[in-house]
Structure formats: C-alpha cells, structure tokens
Model the fold of this input.
Amino acid sequence: MAAAPPHVRAAPLARALRARASAAAAAAAAPPKPQSQENSRRALLGLSEPDLRQLALDLGQQSYRGKQLHDLLYKSRAKQIQEFNHGQALSFLHATCLLFCFPQTTQGPCAVPKAFREALLGAGWTVGRSPVHHAVTASDGTTKILLKLEDNRLIETVGIPVDDDNKGSSRLTACVSSQVGCPLRCSFCATGKGGFARNLQPHEIVEQVLAIEEMFKHRVTNVVFMGMGEPMLNLKSVLEAHRCFNKELKIGQRMMTISTVGVPNTIKMLASHKLQSTLAVSLHAPNQKLRETIVPSAKSYPLGALMDDCKSYFLETGRRVSFEYTLLAGINDEKEHAEELADLLRTCGGGYHVNLIPYNPIEGSEFKRPYRKVVQAFVDALEARKITVSVRQTRGLDANAACGQLRNEFQKNPLLESSTSEPNLVPV
Done:
C-alpha cells in the first residue's frame, strides 16, 4: 500500500473548528425561524407566505398583497422588485413544467401597486437573485453554474439530470453550496484549496435551485447540500433553505440530503429537528489516523465520537445514515480498508449505507482515481460482510464538476468589477 500523504499540522485548525462548532451549535439550538429582515439582508426570496403577508401589513398594505409577492417569487420567478409592476408573463416554468409544479395556477399574479413597490425599495428590500456569471455543460448533461453574489464573490451550483428509462420519468438533482469556499480544507477537495470567505444567507442557497431550474427548463426534484462548504457550519441558513425548498418549492423532504464531514455537536442538533431528509457523513477513511491525513478537521472530532453521534441520529430519527467514502488510489482503497470500514460500521448498529465515490481528479492534486477493478474489489469486500454499498456514478468529469474546480478557475478573491453581459455558456 502506498504511503499516506504527510500528516497535516491541524492543531490551530482544530482549535478554530471547535470554536466555530460551538457557535454553530448555539445557533442551531432553537428550531429554525422564518427569515427576518435582519438575518436575510432584506431579501424576499426564502420568506414564507405568512412572512410576506406580515411584511405587506408592516408596510401599510393589505395582507393579500403578501400572497401576490409569494406568487411573484416562487411561480413567476421575478428577479427584481421593478418586475412587480405588471401582471408579469410567467417565466419558462409556465411553458414547460409550471402546471406540473402548481396545477392550480392558470395565470400570472396580479400587479403590485406602485406605492408598495416603492415602500419595499425604500425599506431596502430586494428579491435576492444573483446573475449567472458562467456555466459549463458536460457531455452527460451535467451543468455547473457560477453565480455572482452581491459582494462579487462566486459560488458553484450543479444541475445533474437523470433519465429513468424504466419508469419513463426524469430527475433533476441540484447540488447546492452552503458557504463561499470551505474552512475545513480536506486534502483532496478543490473547494478547500480556493479558501473560505463567508457563510451563505438562506436566499443565496435557495436561488441556486431556481437558477438550475431556469437553465434546464425543468423543475428540480432532488436537492443535495454537497456543494461548496460545510453545511453544519452554516446550519441555521441550511435549515431555513431546507424549509423553503420543501414548503415553497414543493420538494419532498425525503428528496433532500444534507452532507457533513463531521462538526462536533451539530449532528445532535440536526437530529432534534427530526427531518425526513438523509444525513450523509463523509468518512473517507476507516480509522482515525488515516482520516486525519485526509480530513485535517477530524482531529477535533474523533471517529469514535462521530460514529456514536451517527448511531444516536438513526435511533432518534429512524432515518438511515449514508456514509460517503471517496476512494483515493493507493491511499484508502485496499481490501484491508474495506474490511476495517465494515467493522467500524457495525459499531453503529443498523441504519447505515456506504456510498463509494471514485476520486474526481483535480488539477495540481497528488491523488489519483483508482482503477475500476480496485473499486469493484472494495465493493465485494464490503458486500461479503453484509454492508449495503453503492458506487456513485461520476458525472461531469469534462466540466470540472468536482466541488470548487470551476470557481477556482475564476477567482479566489471577489471579482474586481461587475459585468452586465450575458452568462458565458460553454458546452464541452
């Protein structure tokens, strides 16, 4: 077996991670509340219909005006308050899939009075939509989108279409980011190499799904919080976005997955909300020593404690935990690693599933993708020990679809100037 990469000195990172984890746990201690004017930066997107009705009342309008705002945001997909000035023709969704999403919809929402529009603008409200800065589409249809945020930072979101020939149906999965960059710096991940800037606000997570729907002219059926960032370090915004996806965009909770590499105390906090969504835990190694070389933050969260929290999560929610395991050639892909992983999972009792991910190569990385026969041998070793396992189909290899790759081509710092040009769509 090849030697593991040099040990990463993680003591300062571990201390910082423990402090950040304590703050994240405190923020997540209470059930998620609807966005307020303070924590949403006055973005309308992400607010519920009751929130919007109350906003209308606060600005001297009748309650039903809030319902109009709700329709404009989630059905017409208006991007600016200035677009509220007429019975706006419904967007792409009307022509292609709106009747499927909202069967009761027969016409666009009515105009919002000028006085209400001016009051919204005067109070500093915006819709909360960002322009597409760049997009690439791979030969398999996977499309990665860069959104340019208000502070000129770029975030990635990925649309993954899947046709189910047996059922005659199609799915569209949105892989959404929760942070601008990531502070955890997993050794194989392009996002960590691009640095960390800040957490995303709830509306900045929600708008990623809307951007994908517009790009594909198809409703998103599944959401995975597996893009840039560590969702558990921004749990409050993630939970608010989750609520919006479920309640406003009508995406079932069981169609959503929240991923984490492991942040102390947060899995317990997530379990307390008793969501019907899947928790995906990124292991990437079957023992603590090897895991620390791959995931530096693992030093602050011993593997035994992580597995205990996963066991408690299953017992409290009844939801099976999915363990993500990226296979790195010569590092963690030997048969012995599979056997050790099986022993580790048995400590969780039941309710586990392993999702193997053959490494998606990134430029400048020392890691390599394992051969197919090595992947199959790993699968066979797990199945021989009665471990449920699947191999994730690699998508978008020719579109730099691994987290952070496309963003790193464009920026590690905010863009210096804004652009009003059309998004750069590059088929490859």
About this structure: The first strand starts at residue 132 and ends at 137.
